[in-house]
Amino acid sequence: MFRDNPHYVEYVKLLIALHKLMQRGECDSLEADEIRDQMDVPWYAMNHPEIERTGELSADLATLEPDSPFKHPDGAGVLTDSMRQALDAFLTADDWPAILRLLRERAPEIAFDTATFLRGQGWVQLGENEAGLRFLEFPTQGNPSVACAILRPLLNTAIPVDVRTST
What we know:
The protein has two domains: 1-69, no CATH class; 70-167. Helix content is 64%, strand content 0%. The chain has helices spanning 6-23, 30-44, 48-62, 81-92, 96-105, 112-125, 129-136, 144-150, 152-155, 161-164. It starts with 5 loop residues before the first helix and ends with a helix. It is mainly α.
């Protein structure tokens, strides 16, 4: 549905490029300003659900930046029981938008590496492969297989086979 609109596709591409610059501390660069200018046309050609989706993607991409407003604890194994239960329910329902929202709303309850891995899986499941790869290949993320091992019971049916068998 979302990817049927070429303006949405273009906006997502530009958004990812902008966040790459922001992650490198180049948010005030000339290149970043040029990208922002290019984002205007597709922005005004998107409908409300597309605008909401790109806002959610932008918020998730911001988690890869050092000054992210979403503060996850560092270190593997941080996952509260209530967060595990909520993730289990949403994974059982295959509700990736709810999972991504949960990761934003309850960031202190889940480790950064695990949340980043789930964000990558979530955006891939929603058809945003390039965005998903930004999370899955994040250089300081650590080993995604650690996150997979932590949540294996929850993720076993929700993640692609190639990821499941690589651990």
